[in-house]
Amino acid sequence: MGILYIVPTPIGNLDDITLRALKVLREVNLIAAEDTRRAAILLSHFDLHTPVTSYFEHNKLSKLERILSALEQGDVALISEAGTPGLSDPGYELIRAAIARGQRIVPLPGATAAITALVASGLPTDSFVFVGFLSRKAGERKRALEQLKSEGRTLIFYEAPHRVGDTLADMLEIFGDRSLCAARELTKVHEEIWRGTIAEALQHFGAKALGEFVLVVAGALAADRWDEARVHAALQVELAAGASASEAARQVAEVSGWHKRAVYALLNKEGS
Ligand code: SAM
User: Fold this and answer.
1) 215 and 148 in a common domain
2) How far apart are CA 226 and CA 217, in angstroms?
3) Angle of helix 164-175 versus helix 198-205 axis, rounded to 10
4) Per the structure, how many domains does the chain have?
5) Which residues constitute the domain of residue 62?
6) Deepest in the core among 7, 174, 178, 238, taking most CB within 10 A?
7) What is the pTM of this model?
């Protein structure tokens, strides 16, 4: 019985392949690839000559049996067009079927646009929701956003460039204006990590969004903004470290979601 390796591939910069991914792709009997042309470019770049078969959205069920029987003969690596297979990409059904047959699954860590965008966003990373793609249908998209409206955790969306404008407009209508990071063309020559609010993003990208986008959106405002006790504690730390009242208020305002004036008012109220 072979092993099914889940192998992330670069999301733009080929240098992001891992040494282990190369080793696995070299040694398996077969690579099941979402996009055989992209796979050919990757394999030729790294001088790999492993046989490739297609496994994409529209043949994923008919291909299941073939890949499962290949797995009985030896190891198979699953790759997607870019990033981590199974994450807004084909893989889920194959992985489930392989698990059901008692096959060993070995996942390799590696590139994924969602986590790369999240950690650069400056929004809370302690807890987050990966939403992936919203529906192309306006009604379903709005319903999904309504359900996420009071979600306190940071939200991560994938979006196609020609839908970024509509999605931002729907977010503004349903979420109100919140902090957002648009991570565009990650790891590529024209990488842009844009930070602002949803309304500002709509103005900036609305009609002319180009390239691949991850939209990272602050959770519901209550969760985004520190409560008074946390602001108070942070002020004490700054003051104890020798900061002036104004400097402490500025520093705490930068990280707490409070305006400097409000932090300053709290400081004065407490006489702290
Ligand atoms: N499996 C992939 C992953 O692990 O990130 C995601 C595949 S999904 C079909 C493609 C979407 O991922 C794009 O529409 C975009 O939202 C996001 N994406 C992929 N590469 C990206 C990049 N280099 N920069 C920004 N977003 C990217």
Assistant:
1) yes
2) 17
3) 160
4) 3
5) 3-107
6) 7
7) 0.84
